[in-house]
Amino acid sequence: MKIRPFLAAILAVAVTLLLIGAAGWVVLWRSSPLALQHQPLTLPLAARFIPRQASLSLHLLVPPDQLGAYARAVAPPRQRRHAAAALEQLRDGAFAAAGLDYAEELAGWVGEESSVALLTPAGASQPAGWLLALRSRESEGARRFLQRFWQTRSLAGNELQVSTYRGMGLISGRGALLGQNALPLATALIDDRLVLIASGRGVLEQALDVSQIDELNQAGDPRLATAVATLGQGVALVVARPDSFTPWLAASPFVAAQQEVLGLVAALAPRGRTLDLNGRLELRHAPAALALTPTPDLLAGLQGPSDSLAMIQNPALLSAPAAPGTAASAAAIATASSPDSAGSDGDATDSAAADGDGDTTIPSPEATSSVPADIPDVWSELVAPVLAQALASLPGVLPPLVVAQDPGPLLLSHSSRGWLLATAPDSPAIASISDVLARKGLIAAPLSRNGKTLQLWTQLTAGNSRSHPDQLDAAIAGARLDQRGVAWWSEGITALTGLLEGAAPPSERLAQLQGLEDQAAPLQWAMAAPSARALLARWDPWLLLTGLAGEPLAPTVQGLAVSLESDPAAAAPALRLHGRLELG
Fold first, then answer.
1. pLDDT reading at 412 higher than 90
2. Burial 25-39 (b: 16+ CB within 10 A, else e)
3. Can the peptide bond before residue 409 be classed as cis, meaning omega within 30 degrees of 0?
4. Residue 358 and which of 235, 434, 481, 512 are 20 to 30 A apart at CA?
5. Helix (H), strand (E), coil (C) string for 425-488
6. Structural contact between residues 468 and 453, judged by C-beta atoms closer than 8 angstroms
7. Which residues contact 24 (CB under 8 A, 6 or more apart)?
């Protein structure tokens, strides 16, 4: 009988030790930089002071020091010091842009929430302003910072103004880092926990005004709260209105001008050495239902190298956006993307080869849309500029002809050997392509290579040899290979070498597309390091980050993959943007 109490005591001790160990593991995990991979996405306290009409706002939901610690934890052993230093330099540069020295003024007290917002005034005569909100780890840290902050600037000869607004003490004056021009600044301390720094007294007063009215600030925005809950995880939250798309995000002016677009909400989350971006482009009306047709399986037949690999559904309609103020073709997009239409014999697309020389315009199908008739289709407005830019970089006459007559799916691959397009065998029909090329003076001829028959289109020119005046030169302008139920189009035989020789598939590009986990997305794009670096080098936000970091960031980019799809299950109409930036 005495054994039972002894066993019970042993069991109690074991359970206690187990609970203590579990609690210790949880504490260690939460304090580990790797915990950033599962950081819950929330609206920070500063959202209460940021107007809903703010053009652009960025919320960092973790302590700034954690970014460098995470880079050190996931980087290869030989690159850990440099990776941490690069992020720390980027952090310091960002705060320096606001006239703050992170190491000297902020490192000792700034906590897990840092927010910055760009405010565009209603009057065109007033300059744009910015608001910086910093949450303190403890109450005394924020108070000491403000004392030292203004004391230093007062000793430098700057006049200070102390006043009260809505019961809050405000201090305004001019300040800057040593050696830089002084700028107007104003500060306020909220509940000894939140420091507000603005680019002027007017901006700070606006922040205090909206904090009193939920209908005017981000914290009381139900649409934003729903988007944050949908995105789920992330260390940073980006909220952008259409007026910031072009100047700050380098988006197409047509997208920014659309009344259909309400804004962008995006979350950034680290996943190992990859930076994940999950975003929602919020709309007034539900976009056309567009999904990638699974047949034929174009990716399964791809062989050979690929530096850039894209999958596009319904490129014929997406490559011809509706002009602003004209009726959209959303229903036509949805119809053409259905499996039944994808397998058609191309009768509808044969008319694309118009009687004019090289005219490949596709007439808009007569269809109705759930979107109001005076609103252009968002799909076309978003995809058409990207698709047009990609096609313009491809040499030869085939790319625009094939894309303009293809209801999808379409595969576009590019490597040092040239470009490749893959379509269903009868979409577009080879006869319609040959007719257009014949009017351009190209001659169609078959060619046997490695036991396979290719269709070539050649351009005949007179030879330069005086001794053989009757000799002609034939230049290949395009080629097609039908293999395993897929039509492969290229600029020449070299680009088809991988298919002709049975080479290995581009496993890295295929893995990038699989990593997106968006197999049904109608637009998917995977890029190797050179292609990704070239794309980012033309993107204004990337150039801004490079300037803040003070050193080139391109060598750290190892790849990029993006996808765009509709989100029919969402509570509010939106397009879902997913990006994965591979770093190393």
1. yes
2. eeeeeeeebeebbeb
3. yes
4. 481
5. CCECCHHHHHHHHHHCCCEEEEEEECCEEEEEEEEEEECCCCCCCCCEEEEEEEEEEEECCEEE
6. no
7. none
